[in-house]
């Protein structure tokens, strides 16, 4: 059940009505409605994995309590590591086992030892990386005595399984979401209205920007051997907007619909393509994951407080793990590695926090510099996205090599029966709208909101891609 | 909450109005633009007479040059072949000729293994989509195509969403600015460039080993011709000599006794693009042979 499907368009109003009109007496009934809806939502993907979700939830709920109640440090450690091991074990089995088995086999084959790895024929449970990280942050926070354990199982389950964030985040923190589900939600018209605007804008990003760009990006990436330099450059730009529209669109829909239930979720994107350096990009892209790794991996490793060697080590660890989190493929690790290479000079020169304020452009010389910083950061990001999109690292090098060696910058007719340049105007229009609204959550609110909403609907209906439907990219992670 | 419900209803009404306006705009543009698709070309012939009309699959679309027929007979001729058209599609086009008051004396229909297969053409459904409200024929055909889903007929703009890659914004714009295609100029004929390569010798293309006992649409077509005083002539276009089970055409002749069999009249591999489709030179040669045979009197 995708957010942009007809079934979800029926599901959401039903849950809304039950939540606000039928079971609105207290927070327990409200939470019960949401948890039943969430489990139903998840079982629509594959009901068998519902057991995994419930088990994972119960494990963290139980170990959280045991950690808090443990009388000895050894007991605390035992329950803590039990939770960590089982959580990571699930991820390892479902997401990474085949990758490690296959890579190990290839390594042995490289030494002349012919092996055929024992691979598991399992499908990846939707959202496992997201809800596992929810549970991990909760258990770690209890272990570090940052929060108290939650004793109400329904409330805790809702924190892990709340359907707007269940399958692709944002990755919530107990400190942020749990206090909201512990109290009865009162309907807030303004918040609900904002929620609808944000949901519609997310839908626009998904069906108009992401899915349209996907048609072109796929035609280019899948046939890159026959593409000219211009098509290859455009292909990487289209993919950059595809993944941004897809994931930030999903996040906007999640945040928007959550506001309808009176619950605020963590912001996941903050106009990342207007970043002036890579450090800023990572403060604006998939914020809930970046901050998760910062708080639960980078800082515990020492962060940037140690010597140069430690800074370099920690930077590589966090980016490589972040890449690996996305998927069990060397291409994601390479993508993380490249981003580490981009980030490192900024860190070593202590310029990683030099662009903290909102970006602005005026008619002056400094703005020219800012403009080129944005363009060059975007270009670097696009280069890294190539590794994210291709099937193997070899393909990425060939793709990039061809950009520089082909030398033809002409229009090209693609496999999707369109010319390579056709959606540039759409992307430019999208950039202008985003730029104008970069200080807001979304561009619809504010003055002339109904006119903007109408235009948005018109674009969704007329410009959206429907017959060549694409799943949300981050569902596979 | 009351305020929010009013707000939400307002949003839904806005959405409905936007969809209705877009539906109206798209349909108006498709109805009034110069023909870009074969279906628009067919509609543009409303209330006219065309002496000879060719119907069939891509083996007609790519293989019959109407200009040769015109030069030989001095009569009006068009090619309404559709890629992957089946007998059901052909029957639909026949009905449309009547619905759009396009008079004709003779319709030539290419039949081969399509005698046996069900299904629908690739292009006809989406080319017809903007005109779903034209008449009962278009409505029934499209509703059947979408599995009787009434939303394509009743919910504004839904039909454009379902085929957005083909008749979406891009095609709408092309229609709006009057961007031309060759369809009207070529009278529906779409020749294929190129030539079969040497691997045509190792071709594994095959006609069915057996033939169905009867075809529902064949019977309907015959009946339609008789009822509407249209002469229906069935023929089979050439296959390359490497196709297996060529005796299928003989079996077909037992079902359609008056079938004109041209299945083996072109022997040179160089006149094919692949075993089922002639190239431009092949189409010219075949149309000459066809005209010689059918219009010799």
UniProtKB/TrEMBL annotation, chain A:
BP terms from Gene Ontology: alginic acid biosynthetic process
Signal peptide start-end: none
Subcellular location: Cell membrane
Record-linked Pfam families: MBOAT
Membrane topology: Multi-pass membrane protein
Molecular function terms, GO-annotated: acyltransferase activity
Transmembrane stretches, start-end: 6-22, 34-58, 78-97, 118-144, 227-245, 330-349, 370-388, 419-437, 449-467
PANTHER family, sorted: ACYLTRANSFERASE, PROTEIN-CYSTEINE N-PALMITOYLTRANSFERASE RASP
Protein name: D-alanyl-lipoteichoic acid acyltransferase DltB, MBOAT superfamily
UniProt organism field: Flavobacterium xueshanense
TrEMBL record, chain B:
Domain of life: Bacteria
Protein's name according to its UniProt entry: SGNH/GDSL hydrolase family protein
Species of the source: Flavobacterium xueshanense
Organism ancestry: Bacteria, Pseudomonadati, Bacteroidota, Flavobacteriia, Flavobacteriales
């Amino acid at each position: 059940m995708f957010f942009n499907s007809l079934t979800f368009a029926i599901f959401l109003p039903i849950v809304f009505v039950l939540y606000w009109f039928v079971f609105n007496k207290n927070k327990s009934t409200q939470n019960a409605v949401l948890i039943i809806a969430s489990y139903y939502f998840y079982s629509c993907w594959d009901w068998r994995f519902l057991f995994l979700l419930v088990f994972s939830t119960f494990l963290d709920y139980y170990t959280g309590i045991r950690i808090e109640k443990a009388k000895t440090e050894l007991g605390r450690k035992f329950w803590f590591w039990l939770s960590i091991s089982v959580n990571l074990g699930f991820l390892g089995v479902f997401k990474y086992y085949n990758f490690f088995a296959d890579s190990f086999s290839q390594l042995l084959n490289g030494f002349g030892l012919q092996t055929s790895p024992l691979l598991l024929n399992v499908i990846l449970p939707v959202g496992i990386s997201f809800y596992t990280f929810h549970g991990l942050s909760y258990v770690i926070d209890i272990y570090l005595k940052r929060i108290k354990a939650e004793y109400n199982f329904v409330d805790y389950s809702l924190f892990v399984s709340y359907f707007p964030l269940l399958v692709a985040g944002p990755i919530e923190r107990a400190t942020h979401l749990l206090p909201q589900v512990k109290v009865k939600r009162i309907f807030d018209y303004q918040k609900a209205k904002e929620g609808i605007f944000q949901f519609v804008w997310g839908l626009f990003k998904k069906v108009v920007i992401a899915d349209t760009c996907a048609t072109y990006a796929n035609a280019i990436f899948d046939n890159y051997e026959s593409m000219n330099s211009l098509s290859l450059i455009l292909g990487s730009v289209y993919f950059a907007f595809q993944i941004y529209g897809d994931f930030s669109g999903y996040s906007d829909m999640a945040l928007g619909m959550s506001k309808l239930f009176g619950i605020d979720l963590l912001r996941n994107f903050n106009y990342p393509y207007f970043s002036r350096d890579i450090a800023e990009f990572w403060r604006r892209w998939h914020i809930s994951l970046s901050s998760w790794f910062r708080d639960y991996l980078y800082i515990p490793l020492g962060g940037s407080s140690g010597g140069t060697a430690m800074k370099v080590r920690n930077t590589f660890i966090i980016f490589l793990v972040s890449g690996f989190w996305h998927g069990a493929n060397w291409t994601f690790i390479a993508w993380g590695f490249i981003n580490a290479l981009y980030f490192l000079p900024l860190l070593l020169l202590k310029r990683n926090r030099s662009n903290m304020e909102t970006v602005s452009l005026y008619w002056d010389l400094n703005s020219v510099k800012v403009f080129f910083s944005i363009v060059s950061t975007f270009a670097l990001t696009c280069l890294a996205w190539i590794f994210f999109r291709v099937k193997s690292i070899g393909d990425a090098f060939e793709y990039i090599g061809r950009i520089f060696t082909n030398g033809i910058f002409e229009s090209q007719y693609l496999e999707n029966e369109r010319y390579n340049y056709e959606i540039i105007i759409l992307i430019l229009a999208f950039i202008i709208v985003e730029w104008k609204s970069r200080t807001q959550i979304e561009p619809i609110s504010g003055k002339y909101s109904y006119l903007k909403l109408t235009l948005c609907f018109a674009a969704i209906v007329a410009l959206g891609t429907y017959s060549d439907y694409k799943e949300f990219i981050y569902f596979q992670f | 909450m009351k305020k929010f419900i009013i707000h939400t209803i307002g949003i839904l009404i806005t959405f409905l109005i936007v969809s209705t306006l877009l539906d109206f705009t798209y349909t108006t543009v498709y109805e009034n633009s110069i023909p870009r698709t074969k279906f628009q070309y067919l509609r543009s012939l409303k209330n006219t007479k065309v002496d000879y009309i060719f119907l069939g699959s891509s083996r007609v679309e790519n293989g019959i040059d109407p200009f040769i027929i015109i030069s030989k007979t001095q009569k009006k001729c068009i090619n309404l072949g559709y890629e992957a058209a089946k007998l059901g599609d052909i029957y639909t086009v026949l009905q449309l000729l009547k619905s759009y008051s396009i008079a004709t004396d003779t319709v030539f229909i290419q039949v081969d293994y399509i005698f046996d297969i069900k299904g629908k053409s690739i292009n006809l459904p989406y080319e017809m989509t903007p005109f779903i409200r034209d008449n009962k024929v278009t409505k029934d055909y499209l509703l059947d195509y979408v599995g009787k889903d009434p939303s394509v007929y009743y919910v504004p703009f839904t039909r454009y969403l379902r085929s957005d890659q083909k008749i979406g914004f891009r095609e709408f714009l092309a229609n709006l600015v009057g961007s031309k295609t060759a369809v009207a100029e070529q009278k529906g004929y779409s020749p294929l460039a190129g030539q079969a390569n040497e691997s045509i010798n190792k071709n594994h293309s095959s006609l069915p080993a057996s033939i169905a006992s009867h075809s529902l649409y064949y019977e309907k077509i015959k009946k339609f011709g008789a009822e509407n005083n249209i002469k229906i002539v069935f023929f089979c276009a050439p296959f390359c000599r490497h196709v297996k089970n060529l005796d299928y055409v003989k079996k077909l002749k037992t079902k359609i006794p008056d079938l004109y069999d041209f299945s083996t009249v072109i022997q040179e591999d160089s006149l094919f693009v692949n075993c089922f489709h002639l190239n431009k030179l092949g189409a010219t040669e075949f149309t000459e042979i066809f005209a010689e045979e059918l219009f010799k009197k």
